[in-house]
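ENTRY TYPE: protein
CONTENTS: sequence, structure tokens:
***
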Amino acid sequence: MTGLLVSAAQVAANPNWRIFDCRHDLMNPNAGRAAYDIGHIPHAIHLHLDHDLSAAMTGRNGRHPLPDAEVFATRMAALGVDSQTQVVAYDGQGGVYASRLWWMLRWIGHDKVAVLDGGIGAWQKAGFALVTDVPKPTAGDLRVILSSYPTPVDTAAVLANIQTMQFQVVDARSAERFAGRNETIDPVAGHIPGANNRFFQNNLDSASGCFKSVDALRVEFSALLGDTKSGNVVHQCGSGVTACHNLLAMEIAGLTGSRLYPGSWSEWCSDSSRPIATGNPSTP
């Protein structure tokens, strides 16, 4: 089985894999599709974060709420995914949006999914061409098996955890936003009390744009978590997207079984009765 990450050469050598282009820009939601239309990896299908990888917002469920599992599975099946399909997700932002698709497929029980390490930049750097053809896949048959992967955590559990500390919340946003400074996206600044901070971009090697080595990620996350077991970690961010990057990085490091709080800060801060903390991260 393909691992959590694949290289551009592996993708090029396996044209039967189902490739998804997850490029997106939070400030310009049409940018990902526009970039796809200009050029994408052969056989890739574009998935839009807002429309394909999220449900409708209500004002209380965060900026990128999870869709119903069956609805998501039906959508992916229509795009050619079945239980035996090897899926590869990529983007142009270091795997941020690709990791959301990776997590969502694992969530519904499809573990044959990987992220293209380095994204479309790695593909082009390797000398492979982009195309503009849009594939027309044959529909597959994808069933939901939710019990096969750690279930998401809801707001009630995160609220109760402030008192019980049964798990450690890790916030993937920048240190500035975590501390409550220079909030640029959500209407309220700060973080969930008791959370630690691990900016998702720290998972990447700045020179290559690829994930850091297994050993480096293990050392850094172990320093962050101390004695906390990986199964007692819950990831969050602004809207349940970049948190998946931290979750994937932990899996790459062999620190398995952590969970996602999909609603994340945007859901948490939608109710003024929920407590908010500010200040520097409790862990560097």
Observations:
- The first helix runs from residue 8 to 12.
- The chain has two domains: 5-147, 155-268.
